[in-house]
Fold this protein.
Amino acid sequence: MGTVAIIFPGQGSQQVGMGKAAHDALPVVAETFAEADEALGFELSKMCFEGPEDQLRMTENTQPAILTTSIALWRALEIPCERLAGHSLGEWTAHVAAGTLPFSAAVKLVRARGRYMQEAVPAGEGAMAAILKAELEVVNEVCATVEGVVEAVNLNAPGQIVIAGATAAVEAAGRALREKGARVAPLPVSAPFHSSLMKPAEERLAADLRDVALNAPCCPVYVNVDAAPVTTADAARDALLRQVSRPVRWTESIQRMIADGTKTFIEVGHGKVLRGLVSRIDRSAQIVNVQGPDDLDAARRVIEENA
């Protein structure tokens, strides 16, 4: 046991129509979306299935939408808990799957998380950019020389890093990195997620999270901020809060899971972003996706083969 890990995607994997096929085919998925609708007090399910896209892309809607879709598919998969991880927002999904916090509480908390992150920096004053074909050391050196706040915040895979911070500083760092041969792509996001500018959002979320009772996770959850597993409620709470204003150390997290014996990753949720990242981190790792009802049996077979 322990050779299979479930991983959950974060913001960016959303798309109008996500979860619809599974909702129509599987009662447990329909029940999960209904539970989210009731907890939030509006039809999140309709927004996921029908849009409009501009509403789904709003951070406070995107975060509960992605969490709900992933948990619905996780429940349909019906497999035992061994080890879990999630990219950024996906870490919250992992903790729901691990029983650390209830689903209904989680969807409300991540909706607030999204709103707090959006409100932490005025519109237009923060930015993010993907940096390709540059090592972390070079990115950090450039960021350190730029005036203003700009930091490496998503360490996604070798040669794939995201920077975030004040708009002018991100643009200046991007120009400097292009001169060093990197590819720079501005990201269509509304705030500098996971940068130190998100500290006000972290503080607001802390007040909300204090009111929710957390349980010890049923299995290790590898957290973004430390690239290490947590096994207690207090450690989970601390990691979820620190994550808001600190880097997502995804490369190290996957490497640690592999070092701890993980051979197969099951990406549960809409899209295949994590499949691509894991493949870049370690080409020998096996990874399969669960995006809809047609993927469930194949994933279960892979899990049985690794049991």
The radius of gyration is 18 Å. The chain has a mean pLDDT of 95. The chain has 14 helices and ten strands.
